[in-house]
Each structure stands twice: as structure tokens, then as C-alpha cells.
Backbone:
């Protein structure tokens, strides 16, 4: 499989990572494209120590962090994305509850519960230890439950 | 996270079920375009650098000899019409030994200049190339030689006019040196001086 094929295999989940973390489809598309652009440039540096998936998510996270540094207020204030495929009312409630979380909590849930990365892979992506990430994920899930129950 | 909230099953992984736009193709295309632009500028910069850098610093033999290690010699070779003093010898690089000489003739007319055969200009690097500066009967020479040559020779000749634009104050046609020598010498190429390197006293570390 060539590089473009490998990237295409991960295109949807990279897009979902941005979409569910920042909640803006247009920005998510831009950041996903920026992620793959950066991945093209750093592909020669990839040593295979982590899976391609983890490597791409690490690049995606760096892209997101850089984007937040540039335009944090806009991203946090974006309106909910209207992605409705089934059970629309319930889905919107879940999306809104997720969006109400702090960004790091939201990211932890997106990585582990939406995209179903293992906690150790997600910890690699987030650049922290597996134990620290498990603590973050546990707190994020508690926060999510509280918000969701309240709604 | 599979959970039960408000009596209904909640599966967050369902949030991943979205249609993804095509971003890889445009990212790869942007990357290729960016590489092409970089390559264009790098090649352009390399071409410009290749054109400019040789012009920045002097690269002629006298300049290169000033920067090279060597030793003073002081040996004088006496010819019939020309005397040549080997002033210093320097190892310029693995393939070139530079010899700095001063030639003087007393067998010239006032409107003549002493010259030596060889390539004149900044191209002197290896082989027998000569840079020469002077006017009238004195000629300063820088010669690039191949190392290990046991001997070399130089053909001196006279020419009227001044290739370097120097003015001469002597009257045209008047003898500038010894009239007897002037009467004896041939018309143009008037002396070939042979240099035996072993007799010049150059150390092996420079010549080998």
C-alpha cells in the first residue's frame, strides 16, 4: 500500500478526532488536511516504533495544539455540528454533553471512547504516561456522566 | 464507553460514524506542490550561488599562494638575457605547487615589455600556468606547477605596448638596458630558462 493509501485508511478517524474535539466540520476538515500534509513531510522520519495510527494521531494532536494556540477562542465558541444519522435527539444530546467538557477531557473521551484507541496508545498521542492518561480518562468519563445526566 | 444513561444504551463510538471528506488527496497534492516550490528555490539559489561565489573572493594564483604554506627560496638563475630570482614556493593543494619569481632583463628597448609564455589569468590551478605582472624589464611571476616535476622551463619574450595599461616614461626605440645585450638577442622569443627543481633547494614536504 502506498503512502496515500495508508493515509486514506486513517482519513475518517483523523477527521472524527478533530470533528468531535473541536465540533466544527469545516475546521476539522482543514486540520485533517493539515495533519496529512505534515505527515507527508515527516513520513521519512517515521521509524515504526509506534503504529501508523498512533503516529498519525500524534501529528493530529500537535496540529490541534498549534491551531488552538493560534485561534483558541474561536474554536471553543463554535456552534454544535449538525451530524445526524440516527436517533437524532439522543445523538445531539451526547454531542452537546461532550462539547460541554473541557478540551483535554473531551479529547480523552474522543480518543478512547469514540475512536476506541487503547489507553496506552491514547497516552502516546497525548504525550503523557499511560497512568496519567487513565486518570484523565476516568475523570473525563465522570464529568461526561454528570453533564449528560444534568441535561 | 458503553453505558446506560436515562434508561437507554449509549455508545460513544457511534459518534465516529460520520462521512469523512476527501482530505488526503488534497494534502498529498499540496505537499507535492510545496516540494516542487522548494526544489525550484533551492536549485535557483544553488545556481545563483555558483555564479556569485567565485566572484566574491580573489581566486588567482597570487592570492592562493598567499594563503598556502611554503618557504622562501632566494635562488637566482642567471640566463644570457634574463635573470630570474625564485622568491618563494608554496604548496597550494595536492596537485599544485606555486612558485613566485621575479624576472629581470637588461636586453630590452624602452617600448618593450618582458613577458613569459603561459596562460595568463585567474584560471591557473595546475600544470604550467603563469600569472605575470610588471612593466618594462621587470616581471613578477606566479607559476602553478605539477608536483614532482624534476624540471620546468620558461620562454621569455619581448612585446611592445603594455598589456596591463601601465605607462612607460622612456622614449620609444631607445635602449632601456645594455645596448650590447640588446644587439645580441633574437627578435621575439629571446631566452628559454630551464629550472632544475633539485637545485632550487625546495624541501620535499612541499615538492612531493
Residues:
Amino acid at each position: 500500500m502506498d503512502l496515500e493509501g495508508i493515509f486514506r485508511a486513517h482519513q475518517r478517524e483523523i477527521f472524527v478526532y478533530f470533528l468531535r474535539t473541536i465540533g466544527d466540520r469545516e475546521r476539522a476538515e482543514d486540520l485533517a488536511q493539515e495533519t496529512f500534509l505534515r505527515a507527508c513531510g515527516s513520513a521519512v522520519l517515521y521509524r515504526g516504533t509506534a503504529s501508523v495510527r498512533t503516529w498519525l494521531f500524534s501529528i493530529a494532536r500537535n496540529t490541534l495544539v498549534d491551531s488552538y494556540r493560534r485561534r483558541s477562542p474561536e474554536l471553543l465558541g463554535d456552534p454544535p455540528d449538525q451530524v445526524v444519522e440516527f436517533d437524532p435527539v439522543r445523538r445531539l444530546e451526547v454531542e452537546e454533553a461532550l462539547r460541554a467538557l473541557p478540551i483535554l477531557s473531551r479529547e480523552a473521551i474522543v480518543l478512547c471512547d469514540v475512536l476506541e484507541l487503547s489507553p496506552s496508545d491514547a497516552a502516546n498521542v497525548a504525550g503523557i504516561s499511560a497512568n496519567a492518561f487513565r486518570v484523565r480518562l476516568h475523570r473525563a468519563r465522570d464529568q461526561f456522566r454528570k453533564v449528560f445526566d444534568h441535561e | 464507553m458503553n453505558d446506560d444513561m436515562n434508561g437507554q444504551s449509549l455508545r460513544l463510538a457511534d459518534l465516529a460514524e460520520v462521512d469523512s471528506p476527501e482530505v488526503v488527496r488534497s494534502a498529498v497534492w499540496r505537499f507535492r506542490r510545496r516540494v516542487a516550490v522548494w526544489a525550484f528555490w533551492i536549485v535557483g539559489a544553488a545556481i545563483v550561488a555558483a555564479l556569485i561565489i567565485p566572484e566574491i573572493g580573489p581566486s588567482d594564483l597570487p592570492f592562493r599562494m598567499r594563503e598556502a604554506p611554503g618557504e622562501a627560496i632566494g635562488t637566482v638563475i642567471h640566463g644570457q638575457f634574463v635573470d630570474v630570482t625564485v622568491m618563494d614556493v608554496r604548496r597550494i593543494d595536492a596537485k599544485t605547487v606555486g612558485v613566485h619569481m621575479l624576472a629581470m632583463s637588461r636586453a630590452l628597448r624602452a617600448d618593450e615589455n618582458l613577458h613569459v609564455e603561459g596562460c595568463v589569468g585567474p584560471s591557473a590551478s595546475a600544470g604550467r600556468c603563469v600569472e605575470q605582472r610588471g612593466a618594462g624589464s621587470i616581471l613578477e611571476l606566479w607559476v602553478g606547477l605539477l608536483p614532482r616535476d624534476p624540471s620546468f622551463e620558461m620562454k621569455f619574450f619581448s612585446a611592445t605596448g603594455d598589456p596591463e595599461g601601465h605607462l612607460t616614461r622612456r622614449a620609444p626605440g631607445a635602449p632601456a638596458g645594455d645596448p650590447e645585450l640588446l644587439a645580441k638577442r633574437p627578435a621575439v622569443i629571446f631566452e628559454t630558462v630551464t629550472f632544475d627543481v633539485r637545485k632550487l633547494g625546495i624541501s620535499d614536504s612541499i615538492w612531493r
